[in-house]
Amino acid sequence: MGTRTWGGVRGIRGNWALLDGGYITIPEGATYGVDSQWAIENHGVDPDIPVDDTPGDWMQGRDDQLQAAVDYILAEMKKHPASLPPPPPLLPAYPKDAGSK
User: Fold this and answer.
1) What is the pTM of this model?
2) pLDDT digit string (tens) for 52-94?
3) Measuring CA to CA, which residue among 47, 14, 13, 8 is closest to residue 30?
4) DSSP string over 55-101
């Protein structure tokens, strides 16, 4: 639920300092799929349910992605109501042969 991720999944290594206080890293790893293609890299992950949040929504205190997720869960709960399992059979407080020893 949300928007597509940015698609940068390469791991980085190293931290070489520069004179201006910045630094350099080296990309070194990425996810390679069983179909012999780079997975996720340069595309990202598409959500099952796309929902955009805009800066204006945030400024108004709204989180449309969160609200869509809550609405989805509540709808699923109505479609598939849960119930408690039946209780186990009652057991006697004391076994019948407890005082025989």
Assistant:
1) 0.54
2) 988 899 899 999 999 999 999 999 999 999 899 999 998 888 7
3) 8
4) HHHHHTT--HHHHHHHHHHHHHHHHS---PPPPPPP--SS-TTGGG-
Domain locations along the chain? 11-81
User: Which residue, among 77, 31, 72, 76, has the nearest Cα to 50 in the 3D structure?
Assistant: 72
Q: What is the DSSP letter of 40?
A: S
pLDDT tens by residue, 38-57: 777 778 889 999 999 888 99
Residue 7 structure tokens: 């698609």
pLDDT tens for 23-43 read 888 777 777 778 887 777 778
Query: Which amino acid is located at 72 in the chain?
Result: Y
Residue 41 contacts residue 30 (beta carbons within 8 Å): yes
Amino acid at 43: H
- Quick one: tokens of 100? 């025989």
Q: How far is it, in rounded angstroms, from Cα 77 to Cα 69?
A: 12
